[in-house]
């Protein structure tokens, strides 16, 4: 029996986005609140687009 390859998610929960960034949930929500990390609302749900996660990561400068 073969299974179809899983398609990647277009939207992540804040918890999933935080895990990918290696930060905590509270820190991720703080980044969203300040506008540093963009997100979308779908009803009562808050989601982070993969593109917005990558855009935020690009703004980070490496430590000196």
Poorly predicted ranges (pLDDT <50, ≥5 residues)? Answer: none
As a percent range, the share of strand residues is 15-25%
| Structural class by helix and strand composition | alpha+beta
Distance between the termini: 52 Å
So how many helices?
3
State the oligomer: single chain
- Share of helix, binned: 40-55%
Please give the largest β-sheet. 3 strands, antiparallel
String of helices and strands: EHHEEH
Rg over CA atoms, rounded to whole Å, is 14 Å
Structure notes:
The chain is of the alpha+beta class and 64 residues long. The chain has one domain (11-59). The chain has three helices and three strands; from the N terminus they run E-H-H-E-E-H. Strands 1-3-2 form a three-stranded antiparallel beta sheet. Strand 2 and strand 3 (45-49) form a beta hairpin. Helix 1 (14-21) crosses helix 2. It is globular, with a radius of gyration of 14 Å.
Keywords, separated by commas or semicolons:
64 residues; 3 strands; alpha+beta; 44% helix
Element layout with pairings:
Layout: E1 11-13, H1 14-21, H2 25-34, E2 40-42, E3 45-49, H3 50-59
Antiparallel strand pairs: 1-3, 2-3
Task: Write a short abstract of this structure.
This protein has helices at residues 14-21, 25-34, 50-59; strands at residues 11-13, 40-42, 45-49. The chain has 64 residues and is of the alpha+beta class. It has one domain.
């Amino acid at each position: 029996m073969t299974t179809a390859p899983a398609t990647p998610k277009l939207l992540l929960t804040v918890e999933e986005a935080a895990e990918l960034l290696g930060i905590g949930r509270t820190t991720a929500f703080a980044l969203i609140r300040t506008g540093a990390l963009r997100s979308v609302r779908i009803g009562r749900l808050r989601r982070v687009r993969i593109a917005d996660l990558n855009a935020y990561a690009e703004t980070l400068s490496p430590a000196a």
